[in-house]
Amino acid sequence: MHTMETDRLIDDYLRRLEHAAAHMQRARRTELVAEIRGHIETALDQEQAAGEAAVRNVLDRLGPPEEIVQAAEPPSLSGDRRAGVLEILALLALIVPLIGWLIGTVLVFASRGWSRRDKVVGAILLTLPVLVLSLGYVAAGPNGSEESTPPGETRSVGEKVEDTIALGPTELVFFVAGLPSALYLGWQLRRDQASNPKDS
């Protein structure tokens, strides 16, 4: 017989399962939760005792929801993370400003070498410096980089202005903005290979 307490235990367990399977496609996640719910109901029908103790016994036999999700994932998603040509190209592209960032991000999300969490963190590490620098340029205004002419003076028509190219701290940060993302993703890839010797 189900009570409010037993229903709460089952609902909490299934909620943890759904949270652990958040990276799965919605259809597969819904199917997995329904399978486990059905398994719980079947196991409870076979229990001699009833109530909260029986529910806890069944849930303990099932194990942590995270392990269920891991077992339900295809092997290619849970264990095969190799540093191939795609991953190397993605890391190199992330170091190149602008177009390289775009290409690198696309390659990272197309790769199976990183988990979904690693891809999101890598994208955040790339986006934050770019966003901060962009806001800095906007805050500086249009006159930040233009050479001004003192009041009362005019330039002659043929007068040339010597432009000197110098990289300040802001410009330097701009050129290395993709480095934190590349380093993080490279480190994660290497760590995954180290933890799976069979991949090397």
Written overview of the protein:
- It is a single chain.
- The chain has 2 domains: 4-73, no CATH class; 85-199, no CATH class.
- Helix content is 66%, strand content 0%.
- It has helices at residues 4-20, 26-46, 52-62, 65-72, 75-78, 85-95, 99-110, 116-140, 169-175, 179-195.
- The radius of gyration is 28 Å and the shape is elongated.
- The model is unreliable at 76-80, 144-148 and 157-165 (pLDDT under 50).
List the defining traits of the structure above.
200 residues; mainly alpha
Write the layout of secondary structure elements.
Layout: H1 4-20, H2 26-46, H3 52-62, H4 65-72, H5 75-78, H6 85-95, H7 99-110, H8 116-140, H9 169-175, H10 179-195
Helix pairs in contact: 1-2, 1-3, 1-4, 6-7, 6-10, 7-8, 8-10
Instruction: Evaluate the radius of gyration.
Output: 28 Å
Structural class by sheet pairing and helices? mainly alpha
* Low-confidence parts: 76-80, 144-148, 157-165
Total beta strands:
0
Largest sheet entry: none
Can you give the mean pLDDT? 77
Strand content: under 5%
Structural domain tally: 2
In angstroms, what separates the terminal alpha carbons?
A: 53 Å
Shape: elongated
- Specify the oligomeric state: single chain
The percent of residues in helical segments reads 55-70%
Order of helices and strands: HHHHHHHHHH
Per DSSP, the total helix count is 10
Quick overview:
With 200 residues, this protein is mainly α. Helices cover 66% and strands 0% of the residues.
